[in-house]
Each structure stands twice: as structure tokens, then as C-alpha cells.
Amino acid sequence: MSPLDRPLVVGVTGISGHALAERLAPQTGQTLGLSRGSTSPVPGVEPLHADLTDPEALRETLAGTKATSVFLTAWSRQETEEDNIRVNGALVRDVLDAACADGTVEHVALVTGLKHYLGPFEAYGQGELPETPFTEDTPRLDAPNFYYAQEDELVAAAERHGFGWSVHRAHTMIGFAVGNAMNIGSTLAASAAICRETGRPFRFPGSAQQWHGLTDMTDAGQLADQMVWAATTPGARNEPFNIVDGDVFRWRWMWPRLAELLHVTPEGFDGEPAPLEQQMEGMAPVWERIAEREGLRESQLDRVASFWHTDGDLGRDIECVTDMTKSRLAGFTGYTRTLDAFARVFDRLRDERVVPS
Known about the structure:
By secondary structure, the chain is of the alpha/beta class. 40% of the residues lie in helices and 14% in strands. It has 14 helices and 13 strands. It has a seven-stranded parallel beta sheet with strand order 3-2-1-4-5-6-11, with helices on both faces. A two-stranded parallel ribbon has the order 7-10. The radius of gyration is 20 Å and the shape is globular. It comes from Actinomycetospora succinea. InterPro entries: NAD(P)-bd_dom_sf, PRISE-like_Rossmann-fold. Residues 66-356 form the PRISE-like Rossmann-fold domain.
């Protein structure tokens, strides 16, 4: 039996879960997609519904599903890191205990991110940070971190149930999803549409470090490819892997090119950050007007754009460059150019009537 005979994607409506389900559905016997309540956005995926923080609901929903692999691409943001640890550690434990009850799970993949190296929201970028590029053998920071709790629960569940595992540490993710809380692609596309509507420039919102320094990002399709590779490659068993596109860039190079793709006039860093939350304050009625006129799927701006998260990514005063050597040497050779990833997402957002043409 192959891990891909009957995979279960947990968080199938999110950026990474959606991209993974699109990869899996054409090549598996049956792909299962678990989410809180929405139907699966991917044709050929069997939708399953449960609150991921409700152990009893998970047991009822996953009973008899006989999944051969589990891909954990969801988490639940809480007010404090203490609550993040409690809720998201339990989420991993409860999902895996429910999914493994049939004894058929052979592999589990967990998606985390660079807060593994940079610290949680409450202590982000504080204290002594590791040198860049970040490598998987970097010791954990001396601070509470829900990513660490999730990894610990994954390893403990593997010991209980006998499956192999992989962890995938992504950077800022580019991909297609609607209603996702961390979506830089749709956030920038919606911001650009509002700039066109109001006649204002497309102003870079972030810090001098991000404008001038090197960085990288993660295309959701690149992440999906690495997860599939790790699930089917013996040498990748029980290992964590960084996952980024493979190129590096400076936002001062990227920003005018994104503006060209989005048909707006770019304005670069001018000495002080200009957070999107401030630039877009009070713009919800403008978006409603655009959505009604253009026949868009979502009239609520906060269902399309997550200004707070994009501000966090572009406002950092620390360098973020990620090493991919470990998975390259193990045989994963995926690569995508980040500008192309943005272009694909913008085109799809337009095609799917999430943002205007």
C-alpha cells in the first residue's frame, strides 16, 4: 500500500491545503479533504467536516476513513502563545489519534514555518536569532513556540501509531485560496484594485530592511510537491525540511514588477514604513462597490485581504533567507521563480472572480 492511496488533507480550504489537494486528486485512488465547514474547493476530493479543536467530532468524522497518509496544513490562531501551544498542540494530537484509529496511516506531513527560527508572534524577531540562511539543524530558540509543540506531538503520535513523518517549514506563502488569514497574493491584488479605484499609488508598506535586503518566499505548489516527495521517498522519512522557491530577491526589485502585473503605479520605500492596515483603513465600502460592479465572489474585504499578516511579513527588520540544501541532497529538485508564482496567483484570482481584471 502506498501513502498516496488514500491521503487526508487537513485544512483543504487553505492556501497550502488547496494546492496539495490539486496535486493529489488526479494521482490517488481517493483524496479526502477535512475542513471546518466548507465544501472541498477541489474537484475529485471527498469533503469531510469537523471542528479541528473538537476531539469527539474528529473521531466521529474520521472513523472508518482508512486514510493512508495525513497532511496537516491547518492551525488555529489564538490570542497568546500559551494558548497557541495548548490549542494547536492538541489539534495535532487529536487529529492524528482519530485518523490513525484504523491502523492504515503510513505517513504524516506537518506544515509549519519560519517562526521556527524567528520566534512566535509574541516574541517575533527578538533576542538572539540564528544566522541566515536558516538551516534545519538550528537549535530551537529559548522561547515558547507552538511550532515546537506541534512537532513534539507529531513525533509522539508517530511512536504511538507507527507512521513515518516529515515537517515542512515554509516562508511567506503564495497561493490561491479565499477567506484565508495569511494570503499575501490576494492581499496585494485587492490593495492594488483599491489603489486603482481611488487613484492612489501602490505604495510599498514595509521596512527598509525588506526593501533593500535579500529574502525568499514559498509557492504553495512548491510546498505541495515537496510534501508529496517526502511521503513517497524513504530517505525523507522522519525529517524536517525547509521549503522555499529556490530564488532570492529584493523587494525594491519585485515591487515595480508586481505593480506592472496589477496595473498600478508603484511607489517605493520613502524612509518610513506605510503599513497596509493604515493605507487601507476605511476601504471596506470601496471594496464593496468594486465587488458589486465587477461581480466578484467576495464583497467583504477581510475575506480577501489580510493586511495585518502582509504588514508583518513586509515590515520585518530582520533578514530572512532559507537554506534548501538538505532536501536538495535528499533528491527534491523542485524550483519556481517567485515572480512567476505571483503572476500565476494574480491570473487565477482574476479568473475566479476574486479580484477584478
